[in-house]
């Protein structure tokens, strides 16, 4: 619709509504009506702004000014609806409010009225961010979820206000924050919470690079520094309400760089984390969140933690307790939250300035109780008769492994396990945990935990882990289900990709046992309509192909070649089947990558005996039969990637076999597919093009034409 016509239509509608008394909303008590009316006003306001935008773009300044004036006359009504106590009514007008602020952002100079409108919107947003008395913090339901979403909308308005007038926003927040925290003991919880929340929200509303809020613009840095100082020294962290407590911790972590400017405040914040306000809070919700935030706080301040390390480790000792199921003792934190505490302990030890011997001693103190409890619990599991007890013991064992694994996240390229003198501790952990793999009970849970630990140790201990791999692999291959193999193969892939030739003897030894375990599961009969079994097999096939891709891509193809001619065919025929027979483009792409790599390695004149025959008998046909299938959907992005790898395979065959390949395609294979002579000629010319991209593009067209 023409912007001028739209503007006139909106204005005429407004006049009708106003003359009918609809704009006098302060006397209206029908909430449902007001909810619908606020949508209407929102639509009218946004329509006028759309007209203004188009008119400005067209250079029609006169009519654009008229559209802006029309918009301004609706702002008072918009503010009334925005501040309404019913959040649905308020929410319906936010779009108009947001767009209006966007208009003001584009104006060079704001009038006094426009400045007043900005301030009024700001005050409205601050007021509407406040929780109701009825908000249920311990059992949040649908109403609470709706308010959380509404708060997100208000945050967008606050961000837009910051773009229009950052100085005004900062001054307004500072005024509200300072007056509230001055008297926080006598302030209602929702007012205390929203004051701290506004400070928290400033970090995104007034963005800086890498959280550098306390450098650069002096007035802004000074205001934020002053508010943070007030926050941590006012004692508001002791407010007896979960929402205020959580907002305090969220804000100190968001503004962690404040503590590099004023490090003298670190001890009082650490104490808040480490007493009844934080990790020992009676609220499980506060405990859970502060476990995560404490981990972030310690990581971000790193070197500033040095004076407090031993004190912190002593204070969190009880939180590290592994709670066995049979003694009725419940750990202070859930196992998920304990993971953060173990990680934090690891970070404190590894990043400390202690010598390696001291780091090793602290790490041993941290992990020895886990190892001792693990041995006792494993013995109890072996003797347990009751299935429920077995499950709870296995979970506890799994937690112990998970906690040890989590401590290793502290290590980095700069601070390796060896440099910190901690190799021996983690090797002891390995020796303690690996016997769980031979436990016949609760195999899934135990294997999963130990496998995850091995993944971490491959990264942390590097070649020191290698002596443990053969025995661990042997146990993990016993009595395998599809899921076990899917989870085991990535471990082998990680070892192969990382250590390459170092693990060649191990790969040689376990290659066929692994394949037999995979094929045994894949060949198991399943019900025709069993979707779950079909999906498991599909994922296992993908895992098998990913394994072969890792082996061939890591320069370990001799591991396959050394299995003997009969076994090599047994390895590769499923790859041909994966490329052609299963409608799974992700697997098909991997299969063509494997085939292309093998042709590159073995496809020349000096390749393994019989491989050239395999190329013409199996690989070349696969490159045509797969794309000719009706299930090979060339409109699908993953399938296009599979076709691209198919093209690479054909180009590689041509590269390695030369004119012999072209002759075979021209005289034997393509005529057998009933391809017309002129198309065969065209195909062979494209194949011989030096630019691989040209052939890839041609191949797509070729198969689009070839499909019935």
Automatic annotation (TrEMBL):
This is Exportin-T. The keyword Oxidoreductase does not apply. Keywords: Cytoplasm, Nucleus, RNA-binding, Transport, tRNA-binding. Gene3D superfamilies: Leucine-rich Repeat Variant. It is found in: Nucleus; Cytoplasm. InterPro entries: ARM-like, ARM-type_fold, Exportin-T_C, XPOT. SUPFAM superfamilies: ARM repeat. Residues 65-706 form the Exportin-T C-terminal domain. Belongs to the exportin family. Pfam families: Exportin-T. Its main location: nucleus. tRNA nucleus export receptor which facilitates tRNA translocation across the nuclear pore complex. It comes from the Eukaryota.
């Amino acid at each position: 619709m023409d912007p001028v016509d739209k503007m006139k239509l909106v204005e005429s509608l407004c006049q009708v509504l106003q003359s009918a008394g609809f704009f006098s909303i302060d006397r209206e008590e029908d909430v449902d009506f007001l909810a619908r009316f606020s949508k209407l006003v929102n639509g009218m306001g946004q329509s006028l702004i759309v007209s203004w935008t188009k008119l400005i773009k067209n250079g029609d300044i006169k009519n654009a000014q008229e559209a802006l004036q029309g918009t301004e006359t609706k702002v008072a009504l918009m503010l009334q609806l925005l501040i309404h106590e019913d959040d649905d009514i308020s929410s319906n007008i936010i779009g108009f409010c947001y767009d209006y602020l966007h208009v003001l952002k584009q104006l060079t100079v704001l009038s006094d009225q426009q400045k007043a409108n900005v301030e009024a919107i700001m005050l409205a947003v601050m007021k509407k961010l406040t929780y109701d008395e009825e908000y249920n913090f311990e059992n949040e339901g649908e109403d609470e979820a709706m308010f959380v979403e509404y708060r997100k909308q208000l945050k967008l308005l606050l961000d837009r206000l910051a773009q229009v007038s950052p100085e005004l926003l900062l001054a307004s927040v500072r005024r509200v924050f300072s007056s509230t925290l001055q008297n926080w003991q006598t302030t209602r919880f929702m007012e205390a919470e929203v004051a701290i929340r506004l400070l928290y929200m400033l970090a995104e509303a007034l963005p800086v690079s890498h959280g550098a809020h306390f450098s650069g613009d002096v007035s802004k840095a000074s205001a934020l520094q002053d508010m943070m100082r007030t926050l941590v020294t006012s004692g508001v962290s002791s407010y007896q309400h979960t929402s205020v407590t959580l907002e305090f911790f969220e804000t100190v972590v968001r503004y962690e760089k404040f503590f590099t400017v004023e490090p003298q405040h670190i001890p009082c914040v650490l104490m808040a984390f480490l007493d009844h306000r934080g990790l020992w809070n009676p609220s499980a919700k506060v405990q859970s969140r502060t476990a995560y935030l404490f981990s972030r706080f310690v990581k971000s301040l790193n070197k500033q933690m040095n004076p407090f390390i031993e004190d912190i480790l002593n204070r969190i000792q009880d939180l590290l307790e592994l709670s066995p199921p049979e003694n009725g003792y419940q750990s202070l934190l859930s196992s998920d939250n304990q993971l953060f505490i173990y990680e934090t302990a690891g970070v404190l030890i590894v990043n400390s300035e202690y010598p390696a011997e001291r780091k090793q001693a602290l790490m041993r103190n941290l992990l020895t109780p886990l190892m001792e409890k693990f041995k006792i619990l494993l013995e109890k599991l072996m003797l347990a008769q009751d299935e429920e007890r077995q499950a709870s013991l296995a979970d506890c064992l799994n937690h112990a492994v998970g906690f040890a694994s989590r401590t290793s996240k502290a290590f980095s390229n700069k601070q390796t396990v060896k440099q910190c003198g901690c190799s021996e501790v983690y090797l002891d952990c390995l020796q303690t945990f690996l016997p769980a793999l031979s436990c016949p009970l609760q195999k899934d849970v135990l294997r999963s935990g130990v496998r995850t630990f091995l993944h971490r140790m491959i990264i942390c201990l590097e070649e020191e882990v290698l002596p443990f791999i053969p025995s661990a692999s042997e146990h993990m291959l016993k009595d395998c289900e599809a899921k076990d193999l899917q989870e085991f193969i990535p471990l082998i892939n990680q070892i192969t990709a990382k250590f390459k030739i170092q693990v060649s003897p191990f790969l040689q030894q376990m290659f066929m046992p692994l394949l037999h375990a995979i094929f045994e599961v894949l060949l198991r009969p399943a019900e025709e309509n069993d979707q779950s079994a079909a999906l498991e097999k599909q994922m296992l096939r993908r895992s098998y192909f990913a394994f072969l891709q890792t082996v061939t891509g890591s320069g370990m193809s001799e591991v396959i070649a050394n299995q003997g001619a009969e076994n090599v065919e047994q390895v590769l025929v499923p790859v041909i089947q994966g490329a052609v027979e299963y409608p799974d483009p992700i697997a098909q792409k991997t299969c063509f990558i494997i085939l292309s790599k093998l042709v590159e390695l073995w496809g020349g004149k000096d390749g393994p005996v019989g491989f050239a025959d395999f190329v013409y008998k199996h690989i070349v046909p696969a490159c045509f039969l797969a794309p000719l299938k009706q299930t090979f959907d060339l409109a699908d992005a993953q399938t296009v990637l599979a076709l691209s790898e198919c093209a690479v395979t054909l180009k590689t065959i041509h590269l390695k076999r030369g004119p012999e390949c072209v002759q075979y395609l021209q005289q034997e294979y393509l005529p057998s597919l009933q391809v017309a002579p002129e198309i065969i000629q065209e195909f062979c010319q494209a194949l011989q093009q030096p630019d691989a991209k040209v052939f890839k593009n041609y191949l797509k067209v070729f198969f689009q034409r070839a499909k019935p």
